[in-house]
UniProtKB/TrEMBL annotation:
TM helices/strands, residue ranges: 6-26
Subcellular location field: Cell inner membrane
Gene that specifies this protein: ccmD
Source organism of this protein record: Methylorubrum rhodesianum
Domain of life: Bacteria
Topology class, membrane: Single-pass membrane protein
UniProt-recorded name of the protein: Heme exporter protein D
InterPro entries, alphabetized: Haem_export_protD_CcmD
Pfam families noted in UniProt: CcmD
Keywords attached to this entry: Cell inner membrane, Cell membrane, Cytochrome c-type biogenesis, Membrane, Transmembrane, Transmembrane helix, Transport
Similarity section: Belongs to the CcmD/CycX/HelD family.
Role played: Required for the export of heme to the periplasm for the biogenesis of c-type cytochromes.
Amino acid sequence: MDFGPYAPFIAGSYGFAALVLGALILNGWWDGRTQRLALAELQDDRGGRP
């Protein structure tokens, strides 16, 4: 497959998209972890589930 003179632009675009998707996945994982810890703390303050 020959991309000609556009190969650096195409490769850079795919690289940037992969970087953004990776950052979104990492952010979702980190936020989910934070929310689970906050929920556990709130449930401990109330004495567990009602």
